[in-house]
Every structure is written in structure tokens, then in C-alpha cells.
Amino acid sequence: MTYHLTKPKNNHYPVLLLLLIICAIISCNQAEPDYTAELNRLKREAKDSLLNDIVEFNAYKDRPASDGPYNSSNNSTFLQDNIPLFISSDKDFTEVYNYRWWMISKHLRSWKDPEENKDYWVFTEFFGWPAHGSVSGAISCPAGHQFYDLRWLRDPQYMKSYIDFYMKGYASKHDQREGTNFHSYIKRPESHHFSSWMIDGTEAFLKVHPDNAWRDALLPYMEKHQQVWDEKFMVHKEGAKTNGLYKILDLYDGMEFTISATMPLIESDGPYAIYTEQDWKKYYLGWNTIGNLQGSEHTKAYPKAFAHGYPLLYLVRPSINSYYYANLRSLSHLYGLKADESGQESDLLKSENYLKRADSLQQKALSVLWDEEEQFFYSYTAADNAYGVKDKRSRVRESVGYTPWYFNMVPKDDKKYDAAWEMLFSQNGFYNEKGMTTAEIQHPLYNEEAYAWNGRGWPFQNSVVNKAYANYLKNYKKEITESDKEQLYDLIKKLVDMHGEERNIGEWYIPSNGEQFGGVKDYFHSTFPDMLIEDLLGFKATHKDEFSLQTLLPNDQWDYFYLGNIRYHGHDIDIVWKEDWSPDIEGSQSKLCIWVDHQLVSKSNSLNEKISINLNQ
What we know:
Layout: H1 13-29, H2 35-58, H3 75-82, E1 85-88, H4 91-106, E2 108-112, E3 119-123, H5 143-150, H6 157-167, H7 170-173, H8 198-208, H9 212-232, H10 259-267, H11 287-290, H12 297-301, E4 306-307, E5 310-311, E6 315-316, H13 318-342, H14 345-369, E7 370-371, E8 376-377, E9 379-381, E10 393-394, H15 403-406, H16 459-475, H17 482-498, H18 529-536, E11 539-541, E12 546-549, E13 560-568, E14 571-578, E15 591-596, E16 599-604, E17 611-614
Antiparallel strand pairs: 1-13, 2-3, 4-5, 6-9, 7-8, 9-10, 11-12, 12-17, 13-14, 14-15, 15-16
Helix pairs in contact: 2-4, 5-8, 8-13, 9-13, 13-14, 16-17, 16-18
């Protein structure tokens, strides 16, 4: 049916014509915004913000000098060329994001292998040359976190070199140096001095910067890397509860002193009978207490029970078993990708074998470490410890109990595990005024003042738990509520606030009343860029030529954000969300826009809708 505009027989025609003209003018005034023009404006603002922040950060006094070639004379160019840009209506989030990249640039070191005369890029944790580090100065403890942040650098050469250093380079071939900083009798390579999830982190990098030839050449070395963990840090005690699970000392899980180790020490006899309810604090509550036993007649009587005064009581922890579940799963994924391309049955068999091993470890860890009554993942003492109580559960909730969700190790079809998250936001659990605790507040041994992880805040664990909770919301919950998003935002916002007015990331904080981080300044031991990019703003990388975006940002926290300059699968990605695109128009105009290689490919009215982008369309 066709409609024709005909002149009416009365004198109303001029009025109707005037109304039509007015409507046309209004329609023109409400024309769709120029989204690309706004993208370009925000991109310029983000660059200017970054440059201004770098000037401010470079002027900070009493900060450690850079560990490598990038310093106040040239770090501006390096950062502009390499990092994803970000700006938002929240000045603190924007500045802390820029600060964390500035801090990272200070830890990038060029190091030459003295034996093979080969150059590597490595990233340090502490500045300088710590005795407990590798010969290069890099330390394996934060490598998993570092890999997740560094994968977003536009130039992949830095991460490839750093991964090569650990997987097949100097750190994989030379044992960790012994001395007063080596509290163990298990010889192992520098790459295994501390627990980490490097293979999983390598897969995470390959999801952003795929390189099949490099991947395939590295796979045999990644297998050898996991074999060291299997051979040296797996419990071997037939018939024991913890048999076949992974073990670690508190120290080499990055948490030198914990309640989960203190309790079994108190319960033990023999060499550990010295740790009584009255006296344990003299010997196991911070580095200053270890000296009270070091060189004593007691430790001389039990030379294999202590190393430099540190008790060799290995724990089967949720952390390390999650790490190596993730490593095994990544080996399965990567060999599966190789098999798809090579068609080789040997690659497929390896993929299937590693998947079976990952599944077996998952089932074992879930059955042993999950406590049905307390509804949490607990640590156990290893069954093959030479001394101390064995196969003993430590009845204390610690933040490492959330690690399984970081790696999606928890079954998605069993809702009984959901109850663990109640403690994260409980004032009896891990929720405190200034930030998350590392142990439940209600426990009698809770202590946030001592240099130990009996409660004191630790950014390393914030990074684990925040990603774990974001994964829980996106991958386990059928419906994500506004309250869920607010809780995640609260966790991250408190971390942002702890960076202070003069931005800094340190080793620890006091969860109840701390105002800033303590310990070493500009410390690269945790994540933030990845926490913002993947966890809060929801950029999900995959091995396929696609990605998804599902932000967990609450609707009423920011007015806008721009995240862009992301180099992904050889493409440039830009994302803009604004609540108000046209100030002259009333009401919400929420629009989330995505550009691929400067072409607008997606628009959504919802901030939190899951969007999938295929790069080949």
C-alpha cells in the first residue's frame, strides 16, 4: 500500500506543513552522533593524559632507579608505542592504570646470558640484584602475574624473550643459587625457585599474539618445565590422602609465613615441638623471628627439618594445585592447536594425555581440598613430609582458597562451591575497611600487623582473587546482578585507592586502616592492567580470530571510558562507552562501540551486554 500526501480541502495545510518542517529540524538535531570523531577525541585525551602522568611519575622523589634501558629520558616514547591506552571519567583509575605501566617499564631489563652470549629481555620484581633472584635479577614468583599484564604490550618481542628465558634459556638450565636466601634442600632450576603458572601464562599471551611456529618450537620446553614440578614437588605416599597432589613450602608459594603452616607446626612433635601455642611467634612470625632458630643447637640436631632456621613443612595448597592444573590444561590446548594444523596423531595423543592428567588432578584436588562442612578449599600438610604431622588439614580459610576459580578449575554444574564466595564479602571473612585480607578475620591467629600472611593485605593475592571473582561472575553465574558488579568494583577500587595520591604499588598493606602500601616501592609483583582490561572491562582473548567483550563495570560508576590501541591478532582494537553522547538530548544515550582497524563494527545500547566480534567478517 502506498500513501500519498494530498492537499486537504480546508485551510489546515500551512499548519501541517509547518509541523512537518519542525519535526524535520528536531530529527536533524537528534541525528546519530559521529562515533568515530568521538573515538578520535578520546584517543587524543588518553594520549595527553598518559604523557602528563609520565611527567608527574618521572618527577617522583625517592623512587628506585630503572632496572633497564627505559627511564625518564625515554620511557614516554616506549610507553606510547607499546601500551593499550585508557581513559575514563574516574581520574584515579586512569592515573593508576598509567602508573602501573610506567612502573612496569622500569622493570624491563636487557640481560646477556654469560655462557651462550645470548641477549634476553627479562622483567624484575625487586630492583637491583636480589640474592633470592635469578642471576639475571628476575624472580619466578610473580611471573604468572607478570605474563598476564605483559601480554598486552603491543610489541610481542619482550614477552617472547622473557618466556624463552624461563622455558629454554638460562633460567631453565641453571639451579637456583644456594645461600642464606635458599631455604630448601630441593635443587631445581631458577625457573622453579618459586611456584608459578608460566605455561598457562604463555597460553594467555598466545591468545593475544598468536605465533604458531614459535609456539610449536617452545612446546617441548614447556613439557620439560612441567616435568620439573611433577618430579620434585608432587606428593609420593601410596594410600595417603594427599598422594598425587602438589606440595610447596609457604616461602616458595610467595607467602613466607601463614596460619595454615603455623597450626600443624604447633601440633607436631619431634623437631617442631619447639613451636608451641605460647612460643611459636618467637620462631615463625616474620623474617626477624627465623634468626632465633638459625644456627641454634636445636636446628643442628635436626639438620633436615630446617634450612637456615626455616621449617621444611610442605603444604598441599589450593594455589599450587590450581597452577599445575592450569599448566596441564594449557599443554593440552596448545598441543591440540598444533594437532589441528599438523594432522599428526602424536600431537593429538599428547593433547589428550595432558587433558586426562588435568582432569585427574582436578578431581583429586576437589575431593581432598574442598571441605563440605566449612564450604571452602583448605590446605593440607604433605603426606611425605620427613617431619611433622602428615595429611593434616589446616582449618583456616585463606585467600588462596579462591585460586581454583582463577583457572576455572571448579565444576560449572555444581553450585555447592558458590558458598565459598560469601566469606569474601563477610566481615568475619576477608572483607575489611581498606582492602581484602589474606586470612579470615575471625580466626584466632589472624594478625595483620606482623610481616606474615596471617591476615596482612598482599597485592599478589588481590590479583588472584579479583580475577577469580570476575571469572565466577562471567563463567558460573546464570545472572550477574548489579550488586555482583558493585562488589567486584569495590575490591578493585580499594586497591586503586591504596596507590595513594603519589602513586605507588608496594609489597603489602594493612586491611583495617592502611592508607598506602608498605615495603619496596614500584614493586612488580601483582597485576593491574590485565585486571582492568580483562576482568573489569571484560576483553576476553581467544585462540580464534575473534574476541568477546562483557564489561562488569556497574552502570552508575563512570560516565565514559575509552580502552584502545590494543594490538590483538595483528589488528588494532578500540572500545568506547559513553552514557551521554549528546549533551543536548535528555535521558540515557548509553552506547558501547567497538572498532577494528579503525572501522566501527559494533554498537550496543547496553554497557554490560556480551558482544562477540569475529575478525574475519
